[in-house]
Design a protein that fits this description.
mainly alpha, about 0% strand, flat
Length: about 100
């Protein structure tokens, strides 16, 4: 259950990062509200997951999901640049996440 919560926390992190971008510096009401709610939900799920997952592992995986997820959202929804170097960087992050998960068993 902790790993599921950690994954959900990472997804919430992606949502709040995207909604923060959409808030235009917190000048738009609804995206700003979504950002705040998703931040609280993400931290809540992360804190519960960290009851049984070591800090270093949980935090690394949470931020990794957020980083790769935000990268994908940026490319798919916001038309951000996609090039081999950025793809390689995302792949390396995912490899690091897999290694972190495997090392915590």
């Amino acid at each position: 259950m902790a790993w599921i919560l950690l994954f959900v926390a990472g997804i919430f992190e992606v949502v709040w990062a995207y909604s923060m971008k959409q808030s235009e510096g917190f000048t738009r009401l609804w995206p700003s509200i979504v950002t705040g709610v998703m931040m609280v939900a993400s931290f809540a799920c992360l804190s519960v997951a960290m009851r049984s997952i070591p800090l270093g592992t949980a935090y690394t995986i949470w931020t990794g999901i957020g980083a790769v997820g935000a990268f994908v959202v940026g490319v798919v929804l916001l038309g951000e640049q996609l090039n081999p170097t950025r793809i390689l960087a995302a792949v390396l992050i995912v490899c690091g996440l897999v290694l972190m998960k495997l090392s915590s068993q």
